[in-house]
Amino acid sequence: MSLLCLDVGNRLSVIGVWDDVDGQPALRGRWTISSDATRTADEWYLVAHGFVRAAGFADDDIEAVSMCCTVPSIGVEVRGMLDRYFDHVPVWVVGPGVRTGVAIHTDNPREVGTDRIVNALAAIHLYGGPAIIVDLNGTATIVDVVDGRGRYLGGAIAPGVEVSLEALAQRGAQLRSVEVAEPRGVIGKNTVEAIQAGAVYGFAGLVDGLVDQMIDAIDAEPEDVTVVATGTFSEAIAGHCQTLTTREEDLTLIGLRLVHEKNRDA
C-alpha cells in the first residue's frame, strides 16, 4: 500500500505518504505547506509530486489517495489535480458517500468539519472511547468528544493561536505580532514575553477548562478519558496543559489512512 494523504486546512495543509513495512503501515514522510488560495491544480501537482518523490516513490507507485478539506475553494483545485494526475487510482475525499465508521451525533452532521471526523476516527482506533481530541491550530482551537461507544458527540470551537495574536497586534496600538515560543515563565518581563506567556499559558488554561467541563458533561471519570492533542501548536502548548494524556502529531494522517482502509475493504 502506497497511499497519498492530503489534509487541506485554512492556513496550512499537511501531505503524507504511507507505505507498508513488514505488513504494517508506516508513514514514509509528512510535509506542511501553506494553504495558498491562489495555487492552481497544476501547482498542487508539482507540490504533491515533489513530496511523493521525496518519500522514495514515483507517481505510479501511489495506489490510492485519501483527503479531507475544510476550504471549499482550495478543495476545487486539489480535486482538479487529483482528477488530472491521479485518475488511475481510487480517491477518497471525506464527505457524504465516503465511509468513516464514525457515528455523528450532532444536530447537523453535514456541517461537521471533515478534519474533525477524521481525527475522531483516529482517536477511536488508537485509544478507544471515551476520548477528547484537542486540535491546536492557527485558525481555531477545537476540542471534540467521542463517548465510550465510539460516537462523535460534538465539541467546542475557540479562536486559534495565530488568529488571536493577529487580532491582538491589529487592535493593540503598542502591541506587535510575535512568534509563539516558550516563555521564561507565566509572568512576562517584557512585551514580547508577556504576549508569549498569554498565548502559551492562556491557551493551555482554555484547553484544561474545556476538557474538565466536557468530562463532567459526559459523566466520566478523568482517568477513564484519553485526551489527545494534535495540531500545529500542540507541541508548544501541550506541555503546559494539566488534562492531556498524550500528543499525536499525525492524528489526521492516521485517520485518513483509516478512511482508505475502510473504503478499500468495503
UniProtKB/TrEMBL annotation:
Metabolic or biological pathway: Cofactor biosynthesis; coenzyme A biosynthesis; CoA from (R)-pantothenate: step 1/5
Positions with a binding annotation for ATP: 7-14, 139
Reactions performed catalytically: (R)-pantothenate + ATP = (R)-4'-phosphopantothenate + ADP + H(+)
Claim: Nucleotide-binding is one of the keywords in the record: yes
UniProt: substrate binding residues: 113-116, 191
EC class of the enzyme, as a word: transferase
UniProt-listed Enzyme Commission number(s): 2.7.1.33
InterPro entries membership: ATPase_NBD, Type_III_PanK
Co-factor: note: A monovalent cation. Ammonium or potassium.
Organism superkingdom: Bacteria
Cellular localization per UniProt: Cytoplasm
GO molecular function, a single term: pantothenate kinase activity
Catalytic site positions: 115 (proton acceptor)
Gene Ontology BP terms: coenzyme A biosynthetic process
Keyword set includes Secreted: no
Keyword annotations of the record: ATP-binding, Coenzyme A biosynthesis, Cytoplasm, Kinase, Nucleotide-binding, Potassium, Transferase
Main location: cytoplasm
Function: Catalyzes the phosphorylation of pantothenate (Pan), the first step in CoA biosynthesis.
Assigned protein family: Belongs to the type III pantothenate kinase family.
HAMAP family assigned to the protein according to its UniProt record, in alphabetical order: Pantothen_kinase_3 (MF_01274)
Record text on subunit structure and interactions: Homodimer.
NCBIfam families documented for this protein: baf, PRK13321.1
Entry protein name: Type III pantothenate kinase
